[in-house]
Amino acid sequence: MIAVLKNGTSDKQIESLKNWIESLGLQVHLSKGEYQTIVGLVGDTSRVDEDLLVSLDIVETVKRISEPFKSANRKFHPDNTVVSVGDTSVGGNIFAVMAGPCSVESEEQVIEIAKAVKAAGATMLRGGAFKPRTSPYDFQGLKAEGIEILLKAKEETGLPIVTEIMNAEHLPLFEKVDVIQVGARNMQNFELLKELGKTQKPILLKRGLSATIKEWLMSAEYIMAGGNENIILCERGIRSYDAQYTRNVLDLSAVPVLHELTHLPVIVDPSHATGSAKLVKPMSLAAAACGADGLMIEVHNNPKAALCDGPQSLTPEQFADVMQSAKAIAKNANNC
Hints:
Blueprint: E1 2-5, H1 11-23, E2 27-32, E3 37-42, H2 50-55, E4 59-63, E5 83-85, E6 88-90, E7 96-100, H3 107-120, E8 124-126, H4 144-157, E9 161-165, E10 179-182, H5 190-197, E11 203-206, H6 213-225, E12 231-235, H7 254-261, E13 266-268, H8 270-274, H9 277-289, E14 294-298, H10 316-335
Parallel strand pairs: 7-8, 7-14, 8-9, 9-10, 10-11, 11-12, 12-13, 13-14
Antiparallel strand pairs: 1-3, 1-4, 2-3, 5-6
């Protein structure tokens, strides 16, 4: 349920209304826009006398929200959310690009790549310290050592770092990480999501391998219900029946659908979606054209020797080429 307040409502009146709603055992989500203020009621709204609420002098209209996701709903928060990450952000007028190796392999490797992607225009450095792999015999990442290497690369370049968490017990290791990534396999790890909701760190939430858009937004709702609204959604492809030519189906239609449904920023990962370096550029450009707020791209200084996902990794030179075209398209898309 949302209550749209009349123009001119004072902060004191809003606070009084908020206190009354909370006394009924509900949570209040307040969204102050340029022209109107929206009060979102989260919880068992059957406790609220709707007629009484709409009769208040400060209330313009009252509407019930049918979708199960509330805090993530654009009806609760009409303006786009901009997630601040260090000196940059995701959402708004900045086309965010997270780039770097699938796996952190060595300090020399990560710093070399970090400098290259920054020179090409990347706004953040991504790298896997903990690696969830299909096979237990594949490289599982450098773990805590990998995070330390990423932090050294941050010192060298100034780029905020993005890396994946696999277990809530590892949260202390992520204290200095700028963006915590929740991978596709953990999108519905609800206990992990609850713990991340207790932090105020930006969370990059990837879509699950077979998740619907509704399920994805409900996972975001788990984090937001804990009080953390700094969420970035990442479309990374969904499972299909044709694995011969593409790893997954990159659902770019999800980008405009999400922009209609939610205020949260949406980025696209063409690397994991396609599994092929030659497909990263066209899908990056398509993502920029359909209104994505940014990209996540895997870049390696020697893809053939990569310990993880070499076939989908771009060289620094290829990444620079993608950046030049994608940023130009994103700029035109935002002006439309």
